[in-house]
Write a structure and sequence with these properties.
Layout: H1 20-32, H2 79-89, E1 94-103, E2 109-118, E3 122-130, E4 136-145, E5 152-153, H3 154-165, E6 176-181, H4 195-198, E7 213-221, E8 228-238, H5 239-267
Antiparallel strand pairs: 1-2, 2-3, 3-4, 4-8, 5-8, 6-7, 7-8
Length: 271
Amino acid sequence: MRSDIFLIGGLLFLAGCGGGDNATGEANAAADAGVANATDVAAPAIEAPKIDCDAVKPQTAPKGEPADDILGVRQGMTLDQVKGVLQCKNANYAINTNTNTLSLPEGGQMSRINLNADTGLDKVNVWLVGPPGGEQVVHVDRATEYAAGQEIALESITQELAAKYGSFDAPYGNNSGLIVRSRDGQRMSKDNSSYGECSNHDVRTDRVLPCLNVVTFEVKPSQQNPALASGFGVAVTNQARVAQMAELTRQQQTQAVERAKETAKEKGLEL
């Protein structure tokens, strides 16, 4: 399994130590001036997102179709929709984006936006691709960690995942799972020839993959108690949407060239 999607990094907490007579004197001076001790000062409240959450609509698969969202974020959504859903889901998310490009085999480029939302213990990563300004979600993954003493039973997590997405193949052991679906939505098995090619989360622009989407999960057992989970990761990639957005980008580029030709005919060239 591609473990890079589900890396659950360790967190390092550093406690600073005050010391010396100078620190004591400053503390006494603050107290004399009526200033509260640092331990008495309330943590600053995180500013609520400036968004109308009543108007934000998380998305899920149509009724009767297998689930393909994470936290209400699914393929086809725009950047603004993703930001709205995540901010309304948890105002503590720190959201950052960066934009780069993907080369198309016929020439030209497709825009790619990587969005990362992070609370410190809950991390969501979203990839959007398409023509500039028209990017849509093609991939979502989430990695959740639990604070010490707050671990969840490993079995409970695997049961919840199966309840939402369906039964998983377990080619890498019971702590991970895989679901691959063909272009018409049917469940593919390990015996199908395209199973391996479709079971990763790469965004391919060199060819159209013969699959709809792939769902994977991985649970990290606690070192102290392997029946408990210290964290888990889940990811969904829609390969069919990647192909659609690449084709849309090519069409828009072709249309831009045709418009430029018409403009040149109308205005002519001063030679």
